[in-house]
């Protein structure tokens, strides 16, 4: 029997605490919405899921941000003079949409959400550096995104997730060492090392997006952020713009990729430890769990069970993500381009070829299928590596493993120029080859341009999906000569896909159409259905 590490004991206690807090309390009033109205609203949210597709664990907050922006817009029209009812209508709308369970959220949570809205409205109104133009809009959006993160955390506390993040963070602070040359270069300050490790842990462990990482950073740097008193809120409002700039700087640090690479490689043991404790907490208490996993042979069985369970669901999760991301790309991006192609063809007097239009959709979709179909599962050897790594973090160890972050090798000016020219040349070859093949089969120029864009978007999305398949892989990936050659020619088109994806977030007219012309009327319609249902129930009671 081995002695568990103090960090592991703390994690077990936090998981047990999460279980107790998750139990429903008898006699506590909960929020209820009409089931018919809920089904109608859920149908709309399913449509928005396709239009606004993100990774599944990010979809709920994306919906909160969308609804919150509308609420803030309404409040802004009234100069934020009447905010007292904003929380109740928002929470009811979120439950109707199926984003939170009906009859599960305590009514007192409405007051908590109202305090959050009031806090961020105060910060927005009293920030002395609140600027106009693009900078002001970016700051405004940043503040709403942070508000949405805090609301989600209040309505559905992520105690286990935060405990696991803290668990991995505590270990990585001990293991990751930064070379003095990095500090001497000025690329990273010593006081920023902890922040960079924390950001990398959030990114790799739960694939958190930028708003949630920023919110976690704020809680990390300002422990009283969630329950801030008037004095702290006033202080934050005076420095909100600087805090925003600082968080942006932390996320774009030139050394961030180094921290991310290490945490991405070693996040598997922590994921499995979380799975093991989640499985055990259903039937065991804290003392029993500690006693069970203190025995290496028992822990090894739990590791294998958790590993195989994740592995069995991996293919279905990847396939689902591939299908949704492909449909989302088609609806939000390609549909507009195909319509543009039809207009161009008609403008120049050419006949629209339906076979070509069909191929415009089929070719990139087939590409996504091939990417997902060729995703490699980890080898049998990987399980042994993972088991050893889980053992290392579960039990006390006198000398921790060290992962050093070093400066990249310097490249001379000549080498940089040559490498840049090779990259540009490979881009010309790739795009030229795609254009030539499509032209050979009779595709018109507008269709060729659309296909290149769609292929770039799909290749970028498919690469992101394929990377998720590596969440259990810890063994070194041996690159073949073929993969080396394919990287040379595919990286430029992946880069184009990434650039296009980022640009489309700002200029996505399909999403803008839903937000401006459908969201608000539909929300009012669902609210009317609920009120009408309650009215009918009251009349029925009168008849009795």
Walk me through what this model shows:
The structure is a single chain. With 544 residues, the chain is an all-alpha fold. Among the domains are: 30-105 and 107-157, no CATH class; 318-381 and 410-529, no CATH class. It has 21 helices and two strands. The radius of gyration is 26 Å and the shape is globular.
Topology overview:
Elements: H1 6-22, H2 35-51, H3 56-77, H4 86-96, H5 108-126, H6 133-155, H7 159-175, E1 176-178, H8 180-185, H9 193-205, H10 210-221, H11 230-251, H12 256-265, H13 268-280, H14 286-293, H15 296-347, H16 354-373, H17 380-394, E2 403-405, H18 413-440, H19 445-468, H20 481-506, H21 509-543
Parallel strand pairs: 1-2
Helix pairs in contact: 1-7, 2-21, 3-4, 3-6, 4-5, 5-6, 5-11, 6-10, 7-9, 9-10, 9-12, 13-15, 13-17, 15-16, 15-17, 15-19, 16-19, 18-19, 18-20, 19-20
């Amino acid at each position: 029997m081995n002695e568990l590490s103090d960090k592991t004991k703390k994690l077990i206690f936090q998981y047990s605490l999460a279980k107790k807090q998750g139990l429903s309390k008898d006699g506590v009033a909960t929020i209820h919405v009409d089931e018919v109205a809920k089904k109608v609203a859920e149908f709309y949210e399913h449509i928005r899921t396709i239009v606004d597709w993100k990774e599944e664990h990010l979809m709920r907050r994306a919906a909160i941000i969308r609804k919150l922006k509308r609420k803030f817009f309404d409040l802004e029209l009234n100069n934020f003079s009447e905010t007292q009812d904003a929380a109740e209508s928002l929470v009811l709308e979120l439950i109707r949409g199926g984003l939170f369970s009906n009859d599960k959220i305590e009514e007192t949570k409405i007051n908590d959400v109202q305090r959050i809205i009031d806090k961020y409205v105060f910060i927005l109104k009293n920030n002395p550096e609140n600027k106009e133009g693009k900078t002001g809009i970016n700051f405004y959006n940043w503040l709403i995104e942070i508000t949405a993160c805090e609301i989600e955390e209040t309505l559905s506390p992520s105690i286990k997730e935060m405990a696991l993040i803290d668990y991995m963070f505590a270990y990585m602070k001990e293991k990751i060492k930064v070379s003095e040359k990095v500090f001497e270069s000025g690329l990273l300050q010593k006081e920023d090392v902890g922040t960079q490790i924390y950001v990398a842990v959030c990114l790799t462990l739960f694939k958190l997006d930028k708003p949630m990482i920023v919110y976690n950073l704020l809680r990390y740097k300002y422990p009283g952020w969630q329950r801030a008193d008037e004095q702290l809120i006033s202080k934050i409002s005076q420095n909100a713009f600087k805090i925003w700039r600082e968080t942006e700087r932390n996320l774009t640090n030139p050394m961030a990729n180094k921290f991310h690479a290490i945490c991405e490689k070693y996040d598997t043991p922590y994921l499995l430890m979380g799975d093991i404790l989640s499985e055990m907490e259903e039937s065991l208490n804290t003392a029993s769990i500690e006693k069970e996993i203190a025995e290496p042979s028992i822990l090894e069985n739990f590791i294998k069970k958790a590993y195989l369970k994740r592995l069995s669901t991996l293919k279905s999760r990847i396939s689902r993500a591939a299908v949704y991301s492909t449909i989302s790309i088609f609806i939000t991006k390609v549909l507009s381009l195909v319509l543009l192609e039809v207009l161009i063809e008609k403008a120049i007097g050419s006949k629209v070829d339906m076979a070509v239009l069909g191929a415009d959709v089929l070719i990139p979709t087939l590409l996504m299928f091939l990417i997902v179909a060729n995703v490699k599962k980890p080898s049998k050897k990987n399980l042994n590596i993972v088991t050893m790594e889980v053992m290392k973090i579960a039990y006390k160890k006198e000398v921790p493993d060290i992962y050093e972050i070093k400066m990249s090798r310097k490249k001379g000016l000549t080498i940089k120029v040559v490498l840049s020219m090779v990259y540009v040349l490979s881009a010309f070859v790739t795009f030229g080859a795609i254009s030539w093949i499509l032209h050979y089969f009779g595709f018109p120029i507008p269709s060729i341009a659309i296909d290149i864009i769609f292929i770039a978007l799909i290749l970028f999305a498919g690469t992101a999906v394929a990377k998720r398949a590596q969440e259990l892989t810890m063994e070194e990936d041996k690159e073949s000569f073929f993969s080396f050659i394919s990287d040379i020619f595919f990286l430029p088109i992946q880069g184009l896909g990434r650039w296009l994806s980022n640009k489309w977030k700002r200029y996505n007219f399909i999403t803008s159409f839903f937000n401006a012309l459908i969201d608000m009327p539909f929300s009012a319609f669902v609210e009317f259905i609920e009120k009408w249902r309650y009215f009918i129930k009251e009349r029925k009671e009168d008849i009795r």
